[in-house]
Amino acid sequence: MGFKQAGFSIAVAVELDDKRASVYKRNISPKEMINADVREIDFSNYKDVDGIIAGPPCQPYSKATPASKRGDRHPYYGLDLEVVRAAKQANPRFVVIEEVPAWRPNIIINELQKLGYCVHAEVYDMSIYGVPIRRRRWIVLAFKPEHANGLTAKLNIPPEPPPKPIDLIKDLPPEPCNEDPCAHNGAIIFNHVNYSINSKIKELIPKIPPGHSLVTAHRAGLIDASKYVKDINKKHSYWLYRIHPMEPMPTVPHPRRSMLLHPIYDRMVTVRELARLYTYPDWFDFRPLSVDGMYRAITDSVPPKFAEKLAEALLRALSW
Fold first, then answer.
1. Is the pLDDT of residue 152 over 70?
2. Mean pLDDT of the chain, nearest integer
3. Which carries the bigger pLDDT value, residue 53 or residue 154?
4. Is the same domain home to 128 and 241?
5. Fewest Cβ atoms closer than 10 Å to its Cβ: which of 7, 61, 124, 138?
6. What DSSP string runs through the chain?
7. What is the pLDDT of residue 13?
């Protein structure tokens, strides 16, 4: 999304999940959309592309995955090496890879260097670049030296203060819509939907202050959670986290499971509110995904604001 906003044309996209592929095709309009396992693609058919942008599945490395299923115990383990295969077959001018902080890029770096690429890898905090989320991710940039315009390693991405979360969502309807899309103040709004919360939890939500989850509020002595939850120590630290209206929010991997709360209203944030916090434009429509699928697609993605800044810096640094 961010690369398209920066002026790139998306030639081909690969996505395994059929509904996510449908969302991508409608909103990004690649010249070719491949709904298949990336391991089945012969990338030598795409030797004319300038670059490869990759976001390998994070589940084998993410702390959100149970320890017993991480690493080589996860079926997605090793898919990051498909980026090297794609680069070897397509021989692009540049490669960009995004992954979670727990991932280790050493093998990928070594393999890309063997293919003749100069490689720089760094963990970026995207809240420094205009995204109201404390989202830290590896960005690996590989480029062929003959295409560099004075680029030695790190890209010059201009920092930008993040907007206040409340400023991004305050004009949306105070209550979720009963249908998708819905109309509000003469405008059509996509995906302003969420899940209802059971009555016992509803009693608890008003007690949680902004910038706290149930667990952190309990530990700070602000709430006696034992009245509502049998064993608070077994709950995830972001369960029932209420977004602070003025400060960047943390990355919450499972907004529905964690029941991510609106900064003011006593309810979950809607899909559209989360999309705005991730800097998606309002015309971006996440249907036909389920509500849970919409939440997950957003939190799996790179916020478009950061991706656009990255793409613009890349355009300035490389010779075309």
1. no
2. 92
3. 53
4. no
5. 7
6. -HHHHTT----EEE-SSHHHHHHHHHHH--SEEE-S-GGG--GGGGTT-SEEEE----TTT-TTS-GGGSGGGSTTTTTTHHHHHHHHHH--SEEEEEE-TTS--HHHHHHHHHTT-EEEEEEEEGGGBT-SEE-EEEEEEEE-GGGBSS--S------BPPPPHHHHHTTS-SS--SSSSEEETTEEES--------HHHHHHGGGPPTT--HHHHHHTTS--GGGT-S-GGGS-TTTTPBPPSSSPEEP-S-HHHHTPBPSSSSSBPPHHHHHHHTT--TT---TTS-HHHHHHHHHHSPPHHHHHHHHHHHHHHB--
7. 97
pLDDT tens sequence across 197-255: 877 788 889 999 999 999 999 999 999 888 788 888 778 888 999 999 999 999 998 89
pLDDT tens, 173-197?
999 999 999 999 999 999 999 988 8
Residues 6+ apart with CB under 8 A from 55: 97, 98, 99, 300, 301, 302
- Residue 80's Cβ-side half-sphere holds a number of Cα atoms within 13 Å equal to 26
Residue 57 shares a structural domain with residue 107: yes
Residues 21, 144 within the same domain: yes
The span from the CA of 208 to the CA of 218, in Å, is 9
The amino acid sitting at 262 is H
**Per-residue CA distances from 91 to 87, 154, 263 (Å):** 5, 21, 47
- Determine the pLDDT at residue 150: 58
pTM over 0.70: yes
- Give the C-alpha separation, 268 to 286, whole Å: 18
State the Cα angle at 89 between 76 and 47, rounded to 5°: 125
* Domain enclosing residue 185, as ranges: 165-300
